[in-house]
Design a protein that fits this description.
Blueprint lengths: L1 H21 L14 H8 L6 E3 H5 L2 H5 L1 H11 L6 E3 H5 L23
Antiparallel strand pairs: 1-2
Length: 114
């Protein structure tokens, strides 16, 4: 009987400890949190040359989920068309939504002439 109570107490303690760990805040960049672009760049730069080749870019988990989109994303980010991404190209925000690059922004309603 004592053994059963001891095992029950241990199991209860372990359950409570695991439940308490689940309430802790997650570290930045882990479990779905957005990663710092500079950190992501360093992680993807497998050979440490300061730029990302197309192969390094396509090896990223997000690129493996949708290779076609990754290919288009690489081409859009490679502004100087040298076949690799500098850190500046990698962290740069896209201009508008995909497919809208190069389009002029719409005029506000008040600027239209009759």
């Amino acid at each position: 009987m004592k053994t059963m109570l001891t095992l029950f107490a241990l199991a209860l303690s372990a359950s409570l400890a695991l439940a308490a760990d689940g309430d802790k805040p997650k570290p930045p960049g882990g479990d779905g949190a957005k990663r710092n672009p500079e950190e992501a760049f360093k992680k993807l730069d497998a050979n440490g040359d300061g730029s990302l080749s197309k192969d390094e870019f396509k090896a990223a988990p997000f690129a493996q989920k949708n290779p076609e989109r990754a290919e288009k994303g690489f081409e859009a980010k490679d502004k100087d068309k040298d076949g690799k991404l500098s850190k500046e190209e990698f962290v740069a925000r896209p201009e508008g939504k995909p497919g809208e690059q190069g389009k002029k922004p719409a005029k506000p309603e008040g600027d239209k002439k009759p």
